[in-house]
Design goal:
Largest interface: A-B, 11 and 12 residues
CATH architecture of chain A: Orthogonal Bundle
Largest sheet of chain A: none
Oligomer: heterodimer
Distance between the termini of chain B: 42 Å
Number of strands of chain A: 0
CATH topology of chain B: Peroxisomal Thiolase, Chain A, domain 1
CATH architecture of chain B: 3-Layer(aba) Sandwich
Order of helices and strands of chain B: EEEHEHEHEHEEEEEEEHEHHHEEEE
Strand content of chain A: under 5%
CATH class of chain B: Alpha Beta
Order of helices and strands of chain A: HHHH
CATH class of chain A: Mainly Alpha
Helix content of chain A: 55-70%
Number of strands of chain B: 18
CATH topology of chain A: Non-ribosomal Peptide Synthetase Peptidyl Carrier Protein, Chain A
Radius of gyration of chain B: 19 Å
Strand content of chain B: 25-35%
Low-confidence stretches of chain B: none
Structural class of chain B: alpha/beta
Largest sheet of chain B: 7 strands, mixed
Mean pLDDT of chain A: 90
Shape of chain A: globular
Chain lengths: 74, 351
């Protein structure tokens, strides 16, 4: 799942290089902004049928945290 | 669980009015650089909006729409027994704008008239209130008037809201007839989310002072507004939409015994293209069945559903089964499945 999620994440943020890894703190990416945030929330809902609300998403720091949260909820 | 079903009441006709004044979003660059504007506008998919001239109120837009509709359908004014005005931008704090419209439209003193203070779910709430009253015998015809001048609410210096909202008014003539069949509604509210979309000051909780009128920088992005401007927390609104709206739509489809394939059209509140595209994908809808006006009129709050019906669906509504979905400030959300009969749609009015 990790590899597929990273691909979807990069596609959502239009990232083509290798800057996204499991330990990447995604808020530090230059492509991250409020619109990117919404796109990621929508992607997670559409691909995994999981809704992570804003208050919960704030606690997630790395890409791996997001993947774990999806696993815990699905 | 607020699910409602009505029989033998329906929409006989619809009209809508928009201001002539067109705001082109890509050129709306007074406060923000063109490049940044393009980035926002591309994402929200709102190319143009209409702004009412300073002397025009929501009620004026509704009056123009109602005059057009009553004239086109040759409805005798004395046959209107009920008038409901939906808006959060009324003429005065008192009296209610519906009462002024009763007189202005030349309706009888026996007309029941009141306002509903609701945002983006308001047209569907208004329909449900009218359907409930009309289902009883005693009322001949009702007018649902729904108007907003949201352009006045938001700060042009707050990029979170500066490019989204526009002005419009709509009128629906509702009547009893056995041919209308059944209509299904779900109406909901969640006041714990009052902070998602709000104007903080200028009411009675936080009355107007010199302080509330002062513009200030409100966040790390340099957005500027006063406490009497509206604000919107877009990402929490989006979270709210994805956690509540598809579920409510499925609930009403189940309640009404409909499936995606048996519905002719899906009319969503025109929030922004980001949200609307998401909903269409999530529910796996054929884009042909999802009419939109977000690109040309922006978000007109509760008016966006009837405005889309008038602007995009003239001659296409009669005999159709449609789903309506509105959601926003409150938060409130409402879904409806209605079977339309012979539904007349007037030409769009510009004032």
């Amino acid at each position: 799942m990790s590899e597929k999620f990273i691909d979807l994440f990069k596609e959502t943020l239009e990232i083509t290089d290798d800057s996204v890894q499991l330990d990447t703190e995604f808020r530090k990416l230059p492509q991250w902004d409020s619109l990117a945030f919404l796109s990621v929330i929508a992607m997670i809902d559409e691909e995994y049928d999981v809704v992570i609300e804003g208050n919960d998403f704030i606690k997630l720091i790395t890409v791996a945290d997001v993947i774990n949260e999806i696993k815990n909820r699905s | 669980m607020a699910l409602l079903k009505y029989t033998g009441v329906g929409i006989r006709g619809l009209a809508a009015a928009v201001p002539r004044n067109v705001i082109k979003n890509y050129e709306y660059t007074t406060y923000f650089p063109a490049e940044e504007v393009k980035q926002v506008v591309d994402k929200i998919g709102i190319v143009e909006r209409r702004f009412a001239d300073p002397h025009i109120c929501s009620s004026d837009l509704c009056f123009a729409a109602a005059e057009k509709l009553l004239t086109d359908l040759s409805v005798p004014r004395e046959e209107i027994d009920l008038l409901v005005f939906v808006s959060q931008t009324p003429d005065y704090r008192m009296p209610a704008t519906s009462i002024l419209l009763q007189h202005r439209l030349g309706l009888s003193e026996n007309t029941i008239a009141f306002d509903l203070n609701l945002g983006c779910s308001g047209f569907i709430y208004g329909m449900s209130v009218i359907y409930a009253m009309m289902e009883r015998s005693g009322l001949r015809r009702a007018l649902l008037l729904d108007g907003e001048t949201r352009s006045r609410i938001y700060s042009p210096k707050d990029r979170k809201t500066a490019f989204i909202f526009g002005d419009a008014g709509a009128a629906a003539l509702i009547e009893r007839d056995d041919s209308y069949g059944e209509s299904f509604f779900s109406l909901n509210s969640d006041g714990s989310k009052e902070e998602l979309i709000k104007i903080n000051a200028g009411g009675y909780r936080n009355p107007t002072t010199e302080e509330t009128l002062k513009e200030r920088v409100v966040d790390e992005f340099g957005n500027i507004r006063s406490d009497e401007h509206g604000y919107m927390n877009g990402s929490d609104v989006f979270n709210f939409v994805i956690s509540r709206i598809p579920a409510d739509i499925k609930r009403v489809m189940g309640y009404s015994g409909s499936e995606v394939a048996s519905l002719d059209y899906f009319l969503f509140h025109q929030a922004n293209d980001f949200i609307n595209s998401y909903l269409a994908r999530k529910l796996k809808l054929d884009p042909e069945k999802v009419p939109a006006t977000i690109a040309k009129f922006g978000n007109t709050s509760s008016v966006s559903i009837p405005l889309t019906m008038v602007s995009e669906m003239q001659g296409k509504l009669s005999g159709k089964k449609v789903l309506l979905s509105g959601f926003g400030v409150g938060m409130t959300w409402a879904t409806s499945v209605i079977q339309l009969g012979d539904c007349f749609v007037s030409d769009l009015v510009e004032i």
